[in-house]
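Two proteins follow. First one:
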Amino acid sequence: MIHIVTPANEHNYREEMEQVWRLRHDVFVVEKGWTDLTRPDGREIDQFDTPHAIHFLAIEEERVVGYSRLLPTTRPHLLSDVMPQLCEGERPSGYDTWEWTRQAVARSHRARGKAVNPVSLALLSGIVEWGMGNGVRQLVLQMPTLYLLHVVQLHFRARPLGLPHTISGEDIIAATAEFDERTLARLRTVRGDGASVLAPTYSYLAA
């Protein structure tokens, strides 16, 4: 199940969020080599992990096996403050537009031979479900250029915001990805399960 963690319920997820910070460290610092994110305590936390961030946790048997984060574009976020060079025109912003960042899946749950990882699919399904219930219509994301095709194949209406730039050895492009009920239907078809992925947790839209 996908659990949504916000200031309203974070007291119920303190241990799970500790697992999140360490999973993020393993993926982004150890594996990807983003050494500027290194912290002595082995937890990856950045300036955007504020009360306005929304955390999506894939939990199996009390263990966090996957994670994603949404940031409101009405406040500082990666595209506005860290990688503005990826956007060549007007930067998308609004209460219906959120930035999707810090996608991470535990190594033990990475399925080989599949185009899209099942944990990643569940996380993205949860984000779309939450978004449709909270007046959100599109995501802003920065990703390797090859991933753009996967986004389109999942029935997002993707629009590049500029040309790719090489960041940490990868060609990264920024794009918006609009979604609706057809996107959710496609995600459920690819997952092979039409049920909601969301745990009965508090639904909260940050300002």
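Second one, unrelated to the first:
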Amino acid sequence: MSDLQGVLDRIGLTMAERTDRGRVASYIPPLARVDPMQFGMAVALPDGRTLTTGNAATGFSIQSISKVFTLSLALGRLGEGFWSHVGREPSGQAFNSILQLEHEAGLPRNPFINAGAIATTDAAMANHEPKVFLAELLSFVRAAAEDEDIHIDQAVADSEKATGDLNRALAFFMASHDRLSNPVEKVLGTYFHQCAIHMNCRQLARAALAFAGGPGVPNLVSEARRKRINSLMMLCGHYDASGDFAFRVGLPGKSGVGGGILVAAPGRAGIAVWSPGLNAQGNSKLGTEALDMFATLTGWSVFG
């Protein structure tokens, strides 16, 4: 694809004309205050170039996109033994549902629903204190993005903690089935801070390259781990809209209720899009539409 910047410019203009932009997440106060009129997109290429459109330099809370980075650390630390902690099947339920935990003895269906992400954080911590693990996680994200200016938004983390009763219910239910190794409050504190990592599209697209691979891309994530993580993003990365995203976009991706979406185009690019208004499934409305348009214009779907 020779004119990627032209594709991004076209997408940016199209998204600027959209009137139905979804609704921002209201249950986390700092996210509820974000201007829904914003849209940004970035494509990071293995040759070092990063192409952008719109508000690609505006920072946002990556929220559940952080689960991809934590999963990578958990797999690196535990290898295939990690799968005794979490399943790898789509849930077909809302991201914060407790229903399947009740039916499946506290074993989360996959690492990207909230219960599975909490269990993944617990496994990745490996009995380390939260500050130690969060420093390790930030170091990994900064290395992937090749940018030290990435931090945790403490105000968002505090708000997550104040409004996190449902996540507490999920964690204590798993703990009652002996599914967690660390104290529940330490796991939850770590999880809330992990979700509060603050990045922009340019940084996130560069970090996504670690999962896309390609010539010259630093080998921060092994090929075997990329295969596992990309397959899970394809199957489970957008909760109960994952099938629709695969159908429309055909690329592995992970969304967050902050309005961001990380996408890996295997061997080609890392992609990030952000627009804070969400659709009914909790994924960025304009972000999903933009990636659908991008996949159509570039032909980059893994399904041809």
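SUMMARY FIELD: The longest strand covers residues 260-265. The chain has a mean pLDDT of 96.
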